[in-house]
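REQUEST ID: PR-0412
SUBMITTED BY: lab tech R.K.
PRIORITY: routine
TASK: structure prediction, single protein chain
INPUT:
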Amino acid sequence: MAMSSALTDLYRYPIVQAPMAGGASCPQLAATVSEAGGLGFLAAGYKTPEAMYEEIKQLRGLTGRHFGVNLFMPQPANADAAAVGAYRARLTGEAAWYETPLGDPDAGSDDAYDAKLAVLLDNPVPVVSFTFGCPTRAVLDAFAKAGTRTIVTVTSPVEAQTAQWAGADAVCVQGVEAGGHQGTYSNDPAVDGMGAGLGLLSLITLVREYVQVPIIAAGGIMRGSQIAAALAAGAVAAQMGTAFLVCPESGANALHKQAMTDPLFGRTELTRAFSGRPARGLVNRFMREHGPHAPAAYPQLHHMTSGLRKAAAKAGDPQGMALWAGQGHRLARELPAARLVEMLAVELDAARAELGLQVQRGAVS
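STATUS: complete
OUTPUT:
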């Protein structure tokens, strides 16, 4: 319980709005979720340190409640240049179709990590989370000294152990159901092949056997009853991205929001097509045509396809966009974020009450 209190004083309800890089997790959404009793998050991924700082200032102007900022870890420069070149050649037709040049795959692999650390240590925020790897103990100790709680995204018990040993305050356990990028420490098809990840409830149970730090559950959660299941399995809160993506406060593209419940996009898959890392999205033309040929090269492919994705959105063509979505996307509700938090809390209470009644009935029988 002492361990859990390291996080539970950050929110009224055990509901964390996932940091969704690419614009969805804007200050308005994060502030609304925090004001409603959850924990809102900004996504610093793909932003400059200056842009990150400006969003933090905007968020602080909207709420005095706790919030978090998510950082991407620097990536090793081990991509196969020949494979990246071959994929670039494959995308020349896309560039011609959308009338936009392909991006430079060598535009950088550290996402300005050190500069963002400096900003966040000079201007501490309540929570900082990390994706695509684990920070050093020195970094996590520095945040602890600054009064910032730290969370590391993990997809296996071994990754969770690494995060605990490094000094993380909590781990965000991400099941294979999750939308967007899988937060694996490595990007090796031989280790983390498509679909090789564990489902959320199994992963929570396994991670609990390995670590003592609090667990935040992420992956396909769309209803309060699912939050209750995650808490019963051992989590202290649930992190939800797809559920909040369709809210009016979300900064996601309107085409992305509409696709969540469009019968044309009936299922999700993991793909490297857009970024070179496994990420779950709605299956569309781009994913079908290019996914089988995409190499494990992140962020090289992200930089290469960034312009294509923006051009597709500008052209009103969701078939060329990265429509990140979790497996529960058809359960998305187009509600104001505060109303969604309220409904999730009511559903959570109802599920807990029903579980209590079932336990009582079992004891009587």
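NOTES: DSSP finds 15 helices and eleven strands in the chain.
REVIEWED BY: pending
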